[in-house]
Amino acid sequence: MKDRLSEDEIRDLLEDWKKNGRLPLNYDNHDNQNNVNITRQEDDNDNNNVQTSSSMSSSSSLNDIVVKSPLDDVVIEEMKGSKVVVTIPNMESEAKFGGKQQQEEEGDVLQPIRSFLKGKVTSTSSSSLLNKHASDLSTKNYPETKTKTIHAINFVTHDYLGMACPNPELFKKDVVKEASIQALSKYGCGSCGPRGFYGTIDAHLDLEDAMAKFFETDGAILYSDGASCAASTVAAFAKRGDLLVVDEGIYEALGTGVTLSRANVKYFKHNDMHDLRRVLERVQATDDSLGRKLNDQRRFIVVEALYKNYGTVCPLDELVKLKEEFCYRLILDESFSFGAMGATGRGALEHFGLKPMQHAEIITISLENSMGSIGGITVGNEEVVDHQRLSGAGYCFSASLPPFLASAAQASLKRMETEPKVLATLKENIAYFYDLLQSELKDIIPSKILVTSEIGLSPLVFLQLANNNNDGGNIVLTRNQQVRILDEIAQRSLEMGVFIVSTGRHVTHHLHKLPSPSLRMTIMAKQSKAEIHTAITVLKTVMEKVLDEFQAET
Asked: Exposed, middle or buried, 358 (CB in 10 Å: 0-12/13-18/19+)?
């Protein structure tokens, strides 16, 4: 019996998987989202702060321009350090905005965009810097094939600390890969069952102990993926009749947990502590009128520390004061702040000088970002952990995490503790990126582009179109028109060797509030200063060129 596949067999399997075994990066969900628009409405009864409306004016309809994203067919072939190799359809770039054929199909639907961009944008030359990296970040076209290969700098993945794909200049050894190989040799791949039956292996218990020790909590519980960790944790503690007070900007996994809990839900405006106080005071007034005691109902506030879809940081110092004043428990998701915030990478709680169990009773963490692995961990006191071993659906009914991934996460955690320079490098890169962004793009920020993420702190950088005309008047761009512009910027940036994401095509039915279309860039420790400089230069060049093209259509 043959022990290993041949190189040809491995290549054939990978090629078949790439073609037939994966969904596209962007899920085409037009049928579900064409008639969805989420708008805010003040509700006197405060049962729900957001209304979903299918009756919209023509100026704000989501189906005024329904097209496929040019980045839908991107296939990631290889990642090495801060570089990524992708393939895209090998079609000559045609005018995406205002071409003769498209104008005939769309009529005058793009005229508002041309009006928005009627101000002159001055383009500056940065050819010397681009030429310097041309050999390393080149686009290779193969006319005889259906695809072309692009070598680009990676500003897409959430590998903040470079654990999943380390930079050899930052790390001499790939300890995560070594730990994974050793675990595979010892345990094999799968664990063959849920944790509560025969799926628990010492690697799982070791990781739980290590995370509990790192966070200085009584215990930790390991889930097989980050999404089920967040969703199952919320649903394990909140049941029908309980109350959840939730930030309207939470990401998909937390939103799923809120839905599965079947609890009473009240939303407050994203990151608005004044609105949170208003909601809590209204609940308190209802309690007084009904003679209801504080312990008659379990109550939780649900937030993200660093918001996945916004790049904003929750003001936990203010929120904790409110939760203590009104006697609520806090469910805090640190999935995107863990490893990126705090002096030792413990997250936003550490950044604000707060402590687990004392200021946040339940903390969920994904291992799929800074840790470079797969899975999720919930940390807390002994009751919080033990309760989920019987009530956490993702823990009880899902096959447990493959042991080698637990070993990989533990190796990442050990590196975080023993090599603090990686945390310092990430924070230096974040500060350098924001400073350079604001200085190099000062001609279009904030007049044309807005930085909406937490400047100087968030590794998730979000850039939006400044959606006002030059006279500071009313909004002139519809959502899909913004998406089209941002998609074009992302596509051209990729072709020039910088991989970024246009976020406008969200799966709306998983979100309570639909975020504004944005460009998202992720800052990582493995990126060099020169690569960050190149990315800013490319972004500036592409943005100014796209805006100039719109101006030429007026």
From this structure: exposed
- Strand pairing category for 329-333 and 299-304: parallel
Count of alpha carbons within 13 angstroms of residue 541, beta-carbon side: 19
DSSP conformation class of 209? H
Any residues with CB less than 8 A from the CB of 289 and at least 6 apart, and which?
A: none
Tens-place pLDDT, residues 16-71? 776 666 555 444 444 444 433 433 333 444 444 433 333 333 333 333 444 566 67
In contact, 244 and 328? CB cutoff 8 Å:
no
Please state, as a whole number, how many other Cβ atoms lie within 10 Å of the Cβ of residue 234. Answer: 28
| Contacts of 399 by beta carbon, 8 Å cutoff, 6+ apart | 190, 191, 192, 193, 194, 199, 224
Report the b/e string of 524-540 with b at 16+ CB within 10 A: bbbbbeebbbbbbbbbb
Let me know: does 167 contact 81? Beta carbons within 8 Å.
yes
Contact between 153 and 137 (Cβ < 8 Å) = yes
Assigned token pair, 366? 């994904």
Residues 6+ positions from 19 with CB-CB distance below 8 Å: none
405, amino acid identity: L
Asked if 412 and 370 touch (Cβ cutoff 8 Å), the reply is yes
Candidates 214, 251, 218; CA nearest to 387 is: 218
Find the helix or strand (DSSP H, E) in which 299 lies. strand 299-304
Q: CA-CA distance, 378 to 368, in Å (whole number)?
A: 14
Report the DSSP beta bridge partners of residue 53. 37
Enter the pTM of the model: 0.81
In angstroms, the CA 436 to CA 542 distance is 16
Contacts of 374 (CB under 8 A, 6+ apart): 224, 225, 226, 367, 368, 401, 402, 405
Query: Could you identify the residue written with the tokens 């930085």?
Result: 451
CA pair distance 546, 93, nearest whole angstrom:
13
In 81-238, which residue ranges form alpha helices assigned H by DSSP?
100-106, 111-116, 127-132, 175-187, 202-215, 226-237
Read off the pLDDT of residues 382-417 as tens digits, 9 standing for 90 and up. Answer: 999 999 999 999 999 999 999 999 999 999 999 999
Place of tokens 């003769």: 100
